[in-house]
Amino acid sequence: MAFCLNLNTNYYPRCLTTSITRKTTKPALSPITRSHVRSLQLTVKSRAAISADSSSAMAASNSVRVAAAQMTSINDLAANFATCSRLVKEAASAGAKLLCLPESFSFIEARDGDSVKIAEPLDGPIMKQYCSLAREFGIWLSLGGFQERGSDDEHLCNTHVIVDDAGKIRSSYRKIHLFDVDVPGGRMYKESSFTEAGKDIVAVDSPVGRLGLTVCYDLRFPELYQQLRFQHEAQASFTKITGQAHWEILLRARAIETQCYVIAAAQAGKHNDKRESHGETLIIDPWGTVVVRLPDRLSTGITVANIDFSFIDSVRARIPIAQFKQRPDKGLEREQLSQMLPVGVGADKDMFVWDFGLKGSLSTSGNLRLYDV
């Protein structure tokens, strides 16, 4: 399993994550200390030739190459598409089967309200361009933070879209957790004033595994990733002040908790006079180790790594948290998700503990706190 995260920050990093999972019957017990990921640092972008027909072959292999892109989007659709085209071309040339583009890859507004004005349905001309790009280079695309038209002229949906190598939309996820905050020393940001919250947890099969889709602020709600990991058997996919302080820490935490790879694609640098993003595109393994990152935190480019399925099996065999996880018959409802708040974590604890707002209690077994609902 792996997470692919898209990031686009003003005062908070907006991100997209994708996690990849694969069922195995006999875990491979490869040493934790071995070199389990071969990585390739690149400074721009590119192409992978696989087809949906090769899905079974990919699932049977021990590794698959993925890429995460970093860029500085602006309020120019054509310019951003040109940048994304270069990144897709280079990822495909590097042999990546999936490229994760950061949140707001297609557009970042310079004036309030511009994002709502350019918002389109998923079958509109903007998304069709990116579908054509995936088809041209034969690569799956994880497109986080697309401005999808909302139910009225004053709202949009922050939508994470998965496009296959034939240029077809395989799935889409509308961001559930909207970012409403007043950052000390900064300005108030209220995403809910122009964005409609999604309601559904989404997972989709792909040639690189099962992808669980998330966006940005979702990163701070680990229970969503637990649902994707244990309910949908999926990895999760995501997209300045809080970014600098929390970005890498949260990503590594999600990798360790879910025992998945995390692929974090970020926006970076100055988009306009009012907006700046932290950057820091990373790929993290299930042990919580950063296996590759862009050498320049603010550069435009891609980073590539092989997702090693045998290493995932090895980590899960050594720390078999899945056998302690309760797996309800059905996923949590939107109302329950909204009540999930972190209530405590200690240095001596192996897992975060959440108050689900549900009838029941929490029990503790050793260093692992379990849900008893």
From TrEMBL:
The keyword Hydrolase applies. Signal peptide: none annotated. This is Deaminated glutathione amidase, chloroplastic/cytosolic. The keyword Transcription does not apply. PROSITE patterns: CN_HYDROLASE (PS50263). It comes from the Eukaryota. Keywords: Hydrolase. The gene is NLP2. One of its GO terms (molecular function) is hydrolase activity, acting on carbon-nitrogen (but not peptide) bonds, in linear amides. InterPro entries: C-N_Hydrolase, C-N_Hydrolase_sf, Nit1/2_C-N_Hydrolase. Residues 64-309 form the CN hydrolase domain.
